[in-house]
TrEMBL record, chains A, B:
GO terms for molecular function: metal ion binding. Residues 2-65 form the HMA domain. InterPro entries: HMA_dom, HMA_dom_sf. It holds the Pfam family HMA. Keywords: Metal-binding. Signal peptide: none annotated. This is HMA domain-containing protein. It comes from the Eukaryota.
Amino acid sequence: MTETVTLKVAMMCGGCEGAVRRVLNNMPGVQKVDIDLPSQKVVVTGDVTQDAVLQTVAKSGKKTELWPQ
Amino acid sequence: MTETVTLKVAMMCGGCEGAVRRVLNNMPGVQKVDIDLPSQKVVVTGDVTQDAVLQTVAKSGKKTELWPQ
């Protein structure tokens, strides 16, 4: 089932963005990763759960949280 | 046994450095992490192996290699 998970991830530069993109692209089930660096918004689409996406991004060492509603 | 592992890690800003420091500080056995951002040099001291340190840093999504001799 396709889910969309939106996170706020502490990213400061293109290197930060690249690292987050790399760990998410390596995650099973992920189909699409959209990142907007200025707003630190990361949108992940795929056969994934919110918890699994949060844990994967946390492994990158970046501070992360669900996008504030 | 205390080992010292020296890596070159692609880091561009303080956020990159912080992420690498965070994943290494969470790694079992690590006693000390020294990072020089301008030279992208990371020196890890502790009861660790070269392979395990490389794998841990790779999980951060940063490109990494052993420091060129």
